[in-house]
């Protein structure tokens, strides 16, 4: 298949699926769009896509089909219908965040019928979907990845093949663990700041401003392993500095929380786990 002749289908045109699909509306090989809510397809048709009236019609006309539906059960349901009408060599790309085992199991089912399945969850939200800046995390065979890669690159500015089926979903879950643990930490920080009389909107502006400069949590995510740092590792002096600053500031935050009567359990946990997490066990 080439980019010029590959026909693409897109099923699931919700908050993120619709802007993703709009990036493909003028795809050279054509885009077939479907959603259980017919009105959701209107914007795609206006942009040049073909309206599919059923999942089967998408299957009959597509070489690569992207799924952005709600959950594991919907992915199973849609795939079962697709497999009954799929073209030979079809690649199904599951963008929904599902369980890694679901992705692996469905890939086995699909392979038995000559269909390749890759899991390719996305990160970047509706804004990233609208302007094609999504990060797309892909699990699947190298062959299946190469067949759908041009389509993915139309929707994302960072498309990474991470390994076999399930790898994309595992990466998305790890990324979202960071996301939502950070959100929880934000709520703790806000309670502390509010008790200290700080304007929370101004604090939010400060956090967003400085994260753009420093990279936020991603600033320490450059090592390719989590094993303890060797004595001569080039990262050791950098992470020792991070640990020293972090432990100092976390200690002060805990003292402030105690003085203001604000419970800060995440700060206490971070103080205990920062050094070991950085690979600095047994050092101070």
What tags apply to this protein structure?
284 residues; alpha/beta; Rossmann fold; N-(1-d-carboxylethyl)-l-norvaline Dehydrogenase, domain 2; 2 domains; six-stranded parallel beta sheet; three-stranded mixed beta sheet; 13% strand; elongated
Characterise this structure.
This protein is an alpha/beta fold and 284 residues long. The protein has two domains: 8-164, NAD(P)-binding Rossmann-like Domain (Rossmann fold, 3-Layer(aba) Sandwich); 171-277, N-(1-d-carboxylethyl)-l-norvaline Dehydrogenase, domain 2 (Orthogonal Bundle), CATH 1.10.1040.10. The chain is built from eleven helices and nine strands. It has helices at 17-22, 42-46, 55-61, 72-83, 100-111, 125-131, 142-155, 167-195, 200-214, 235-260, 265-277; strands at 8-11, 31-34, 50-51, 64-67, 91-94, 116-119, 122-123, 134-139, 156-163. The strands form two sheets. The chain has a six-stranded parallel β-sheet, sandwiched between helices. It has a three-stranded mixed β-sheet with strand order 7-8-9. Helix 3 packs across helix 4 and helix 10 (235-260) runs antiparallel to helix 11 (265-277). The longest helix has 29 residues, at 167-195. The termini are far apart. The model has no long low-confidence stretch (mean pLDDT 96).
């Amino acid at each position: 298949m080439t980019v010029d002749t590959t026909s693409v289908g897109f099923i699931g045109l919700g908050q993120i699926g619709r802007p993703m699909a709009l990036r493909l509306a003028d795809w050279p090989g054509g885009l077939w769009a479907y959603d259980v809510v017919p009105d959701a397809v209107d914007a795609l048709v206006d942009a040049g896509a073909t309206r599919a009236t059923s999942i089967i019609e998408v299957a009959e006309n597509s070489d690569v089909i992207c799924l952005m539906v709600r959950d594991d059960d919907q992915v199973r349901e849609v795939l079962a219908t697709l497999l009954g009408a799929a073209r030979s060599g079809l690649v199904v790309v599951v963008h929904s965040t599902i369980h890694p085992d679901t992705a692996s199991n469905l890939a086995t089912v699909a392979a038995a019928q000559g269909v390749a399945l890759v899991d390719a969850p996305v990160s970047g939200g509706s804004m990233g979907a609208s302007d094609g800046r999504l990060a797309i995390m892909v699990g699947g065979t190298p062959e299946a990845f190469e067949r759908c890669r041009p389509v993915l690159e139309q929707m994302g500015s960072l498309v990474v093949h991470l390994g076999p089926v399930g790898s994309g979903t595992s990466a998305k879950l790890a990324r979202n663990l960071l996301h939502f643990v950070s959100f929880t930490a934000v709520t703790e920080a806000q309670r502390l700041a509010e008790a200290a009389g700080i304007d929370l909107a101004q604090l939010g502006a400060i956090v967003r401003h400085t994260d753009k400069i420093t990279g936020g949590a991603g600033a320490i995510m450059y090592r390719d392993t989590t094993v303890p740092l060797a004595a001569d590792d080039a990262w050791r002096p950098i992470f020792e500095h991070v640990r020293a600053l972090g432990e100092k500031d976390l200690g002060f935050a805990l003292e402030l929380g105690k003085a203001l009567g604000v419970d800060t359990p995440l700060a206490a946990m971070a103080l205990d786990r920062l050094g070991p997490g950085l690979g600095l066990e047994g050092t101070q």
